[in-house]
Amino acid sequence: MVQTGEQLISTDAQRYLLIYMIAVLVIVTTLIVVFFIIFQHRKNKLLLDKVKQQKLFEEAVSQTRVEIQEQTLKYIGQELHDNIGQLLSLASMQLGMLGVKIGADIKEPYIETQKIIKESLGEVRALSKSLNTEVIQNRGFMESIAYELKRLNKLKLIKADLMVTGEVRTFENSKDSIILFRILQEFISNTVKHSKASQLTITLDYQPALLQMKASDNGVGFLMDAVTERSGLLNMKSRAALVESDFELISSPDQGTVLSISYPITKRASKALELL
Q: What whole-number distance in Å separates Cα of residue 266 and Cα of residue 276?
């Protein structure tokens, strides 16, 4: 009986020791799991903060680049208007003064030259306005696009049309309108320079929450893979990202080029109001 009692005591001690070891193991395992979860949470938070900081840095760099470009364009526009414009005005005045001394044999080429100088002066002034941010803001987004296309049609560089659908809304953030105008201006410039297109169409579709913009030409097109690193395309993409817009450019040889931008006009308006 004594031996049986000792065995029972020994068995109970082993049982308690086992329970104690299991409890310690469970506690240690729980602490390890909790520590791992906290570690992962902090690690993920640091990674997210790093990504956020990197994104903010890239946005700041892009915004600074845009502001520098706008200042440069404004300066060029002023130089065109003040210097080149004045020189052309002076040339036109002097040519007019010489008109009384022109013989009949060169009267026709004289009149044609005078006409060219006046047209050049008008084009320089129009171009200087399209480069000046303040002029664009005062004129308005849609009106600035219409003015740009009117200038192209007047010069007979290409047949350009503007189509507007939906209820037209003004931009709460004027900087957004400038950025979007510059994107379309870049597309127009590339179309005139490189596409050999005869038709350019820009469509503005004002929807309840979005402004859908589409610009297309019927030019020679290009291979997308061959131009992914072109500064013009990258410039348009970075500008669209600044205003949280979806950007898509599609082209292929002999199929023309199509630019699509989806601008969240309601979302951007709310953000602009929050900053006031």
A: 16
